[in-house]
Amino acid sequence: MTADLSQIVKAYDVRGVVPDQWDEALAELFGAAFVQVTAAEAIVVGHDMRPSSPGLSGAFARGAAARGADVTLIGLCSTDQLYFASGKFDLPGAMFTASHNPAQYNGIKMCRAGAAPVGQDTGLADIRALVESWSGQGAPEPAAERGTVTERDTLTDYAAHLLSLVDLSAMRPLKVVVDAGNGMGGHTVPTVFTSLPVTLVPMYFELDGTFPNHEANPLDPANIVDLQARVRSEGADLGIAFDGDADRCFVVDERGEGVSPSAITALVAARELAKHPGGTVIHNLITSWSVPEVVRENGGTPARTRVGHSFIKQEMARTGAIFGGEHSAHYYFRDFWNADTGMLAALHVLAALGGQDGTLSELVAQYDRYAGSGEINSTVEHQAGRTAAVREAFEPREGVTIDELDGLTVTAADWWFNLRPSNTEPLLRLNVEARDEATMAKIRDEVLTLVRATA
């Protein structure tokens, strides 16, 4: 029976419930298809701490080897550690993770050599077609010469590479609370931080894909409550939270207050522009106005793009950008093969804070200039109709500009908002920013009233 992969092959990755939606038999076919589509002679494969990850990644490796590719298994790793291996060895790679999804989920993030993304338009649709075909007709004949499967540890090399990209020599001692959320940060942080003048206070470093303490998604305020309390009780200089596969990081200041990812984007952009004067910095359209302002103030060129890592990475490659940031706390670096790495962003924050005497809240104040709503989701059956109603309400107003690069963006002199549909759920996502809190709240409430109208 031909497998229906429509529910698990997403825009950028494979993700679904194990074993209900996919299993090791399908993982083996994905491995074979990945090798065929990429024409790879060798690949690298890693996995997170989920109970199903070792079995699924092993099956993927068998399928790849059967098609003649040599497979290097790097075992437990963060997603950015897999990107490191793909870039360092110049090999296509596959990472088994479902990031912050619940324990019963798993997935595959795939990339070409040099950590170049594999999405629907860059190979994922072809991989899906092959797997569907083979699931109904039987797997292809093995290659004449089967590939080898070997193991290699890359954690020490990964840490050394990241530390080589940030000057931490002038850093004063800091007390840092890190919440790994029982995810892969518990694997990477001890090795990366070992040589730093840091008193590390670890939280939930035990690798546990059932996430017994909280969901490993630091963008949800409920999931950083423990970190905020611990930063305050420890009198720490800052807190850092990683998501399940540790490719995103979220920062908490010395007061236990969350630092906007837009402020982190601006801070890191200023530091990267000091290393690469005149460079281009990519930001998605829901980052703060402060990001392009800081980029210009530091002699760089800001470039605006749609939300989503494939768009960021494409623009990074096309423009030769030195850095890219998203409000979802993904941070991309040219020095890291245009891939995203929360750990490198965290090291920049440590270097910036440790290189001066002030607090983190004082440091980031210069980058956090406006009042933002954060992302607000509304369950909406008719997304296009509600979006049209919002456009009709705002378009006639004087001084308003509208663009549809990604959803609907409405901009005025003192505020802007973006309203865009989810690709996978019946949701509309709203982000609002204004020069003051009262204006932001007024625009936010007006748009939400239109979005959530029942008529």
Structure description:
36% of the residues lie in helices and 23% in strands. With 455 residues, it is an alpha/beta fold. The chain folds into four domains: 14-153, Alpha-D-Glucose-1,6-Bisphosphate, Chain A, domain 3 (3-Layer(aba) Sandwich), CATH 3.40.120.10; 157-254, Alpha-D-Glucose-1,6-Bisphosphate, Chain A, domain 3 (3-Layer(aba) Sandwich), CATH 3.40.120; 261-365, Alpha-D-Glucose-1,6-Bisphosphate, Chain A, domain 3, CATH 3.40.120; 371-451, Alpha-D-phosphohexomutase, C-terminal domain (TATA-Binding Protein, 2-Layer Sandwich), CATH 3.30.310.50. Strands 1, 2, 3, 4, 5, 6 and 7 form a seven-stranded mixed β-sheet that branches. Helix 8 packs parallel to helix 9 (290-297) and helix 8 packs across helix 11 (342-354). InterPro entries: A-D-PHexomutase_a/b/a-I, A-D-PHexomutase_a/b/a-I/II/III, A-D-PHexomutase_a/b/a-II, A-D-PHexomutase_a/b/a-III, A-D-PHexomutase_C, A-D-PHexomutase_C_sf, Alpha-D-phosphohexomutase_SF. Belongs to the phosphohexose mutase family.
The low-confidence parts are none
Count of all domains:
4
Question: What's the level 1 CATH class of the largest domain?
Answer: Alpha Beta
Q: Roughly what is the average pLDDT, rounded to an integer?
A: 96
Relative helix content = 25-40%
What's the CATH H-level superfamily name of the largest domain?
Alpha-D-Glucose-1,6-Bisphosphate, subunit A, domain 3
For this structure, the quaternary state is: single chain
